[in-house]
């Protein structure tokens, strides 16, 4: 798992089982609808997809949507994957579909983890962001079911203008809810997400530094999504704390196992990015570098997943940090960070452009500036 070659196999696969969902979230990248699409992958097609995922060195598999529970065969699909030995997680929407009976059924088949979204410490903030009154209360009820059945809990939070000033309160709530992982997403303006909802580059940096300090005092793990430059902050801070030379130790960041690795993220030992260790399959079988980078690279109904992932020119470009443009292309952290390719695409139209939400000036550019001065 940890010596995985991202040129051949992904670290994590996200499968959007359906786009059907009863919520109407402001940021929804899927622009989810109330009804299932008639061309969704069938159960048999899903089994073939799972077989192909397993053959790619058995990566992590996450069922997402929409709301995965809107598919009546979701537990049969999960059971098929789990029996093959795949570690499966699910991110359902907090709707009346999340009954204690449904969670108990998932536990019996061996679902490894449930993840629920909480985007504010109060119902008013969360419900506004999720576009549905009562979502907060349903989420809290679902979390109680998870604890009653003694399942590990992951909480997902999207950082945006709506909750930026409430993050300290969010930490208190996440700790109170006894989760094992707080997954902090940084909004990318795609789908229903708007650029005006995104926090600024300076605010990203402040939140990263705050998150790192939080990570040292809370009992749960923290990981980020669409915030690859958080790795730069963590590595820099750890080097400072150890009073080591400020040269970036790529071999440590790329090769050490997740536990105790220098990145401190507790997940992949090297930076997962759009198309680089990460692949997304839509409800109708379209393949993307991620759900936030809406550039179709193929469809599993026509081309095997491993062929698309390994041979698509777009995937190959995304896995070559030397192709990055602007300051990302000159940055000494490009092999462990690389910036969010989805955010670069959303804001510039070019997935190889610099990360728009990064304030860091690479050492090489600082040296050039000093020479001209």
From TrEMBL:
Q: Which cofactor does it need?
A: [4Fe-4S] cluster
Residues forming the Radical SAM core domain are: 7-221
Query: What keywords would UniProt list here?
Result: 4Fe-4S, Iron, Iron-sulfur, Metal-binding, S-adenosyl-L-methionine
Superkingdom to which the source organism belongs:
Bacteria
Which InterPro entries would you find in this protein's record?
Aldolase_TIM, Elp3/MiaA/NifB-like_rSAM, PqqE-like, Radical_SAM_PqqE_MftC-like, rSAM, rSAM_sf
PANTHER family in the record: RADICAL SAM DOMAIN PROTEIN (PTHR11228), TUNGSTEN-CONTAINING ALDEHYDE FERREDOXIN OXIDOREDUCTASE COFACTOR MODIFYING PROTEIN (PTHR11228:SF34)
What's the protein name? TIGR04053 family radical SAM/SPASM domain-containing protein
Q: Which organism is it from?
A: Bacillus carboniphilus
């Amino acid at each position: 798992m940890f010596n995985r070659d991202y040129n051949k196999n992904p670290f994590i696969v996200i499968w959007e089982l359906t786009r059907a969902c009863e919520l109407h979230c402001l940021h929804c990248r899927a622009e989810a609808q109330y009804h299932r699409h008639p061309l969704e992958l069938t159960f048999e097609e899903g089994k073939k997809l799972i077989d192909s995922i397993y053959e790619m060195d058995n990566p992590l598999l996450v069922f997402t949507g929409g709301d995965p529970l809107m598919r009546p065969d979701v537990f049969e699909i999960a059971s098929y994957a789990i029996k093959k030995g795949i570690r499966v997680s699910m991110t359902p929407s907090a709707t009346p579909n999340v009954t204690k009976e449904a969670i108990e059924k998932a536990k019996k088949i061996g679902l490894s983890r449930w993840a629920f979204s909480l985007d504010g410490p109060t119902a008013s903030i969360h419900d506004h962001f999720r576009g549905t009154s009562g979502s907060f209360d349903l989420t809290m009820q679902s979390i109680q079911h998870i604890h009653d059945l003694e399942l590990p809990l992951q909480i997902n939070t999207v950082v945006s203008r709506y909750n930026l000033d409430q993050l300290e309160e969010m930490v208190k709530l996440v700790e109170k809810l006894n989760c094992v992982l707080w997954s902090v997403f940084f909004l990318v303006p795609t789908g229903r997400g708007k650029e005006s909802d995104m926090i600024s580059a300076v605010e990203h940096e402040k939140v990263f530094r705050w998150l790192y300090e939080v990570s040292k005092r809370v009992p749960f793990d923290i990981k980020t999504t669409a915030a690859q430059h958080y790795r730069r902050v963590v590595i820099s801070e750890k080097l400072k704390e150890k009073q080591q030379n400020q040269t970036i130790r790529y071999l440590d960041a790329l090769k050490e196992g997740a536990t105790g690795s220098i990145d401190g993220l507790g997940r992949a030992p090297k930076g997962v990015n759009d198309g680089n260790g990460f692949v997304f399959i839509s409800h109708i079988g379209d393949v993307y570098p991620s759900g936030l980078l809406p550039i179709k690279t193929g469809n599993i109904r026509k081309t095997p997943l491993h062929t698309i992932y390994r041979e698509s020119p777009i995937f190959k470009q995304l896995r070559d940090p030397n192709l990055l443009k602007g300051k990302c292309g000159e940055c000494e952290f490009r092999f462990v960070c690389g910036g969010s390719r989805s955010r670069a695409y959303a804001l510039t139209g070019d997935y190889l452009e610099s990360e728009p939400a990064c304030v860091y000036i690479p050492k090489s550019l600082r040296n050039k500036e000093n020479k001209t001065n």
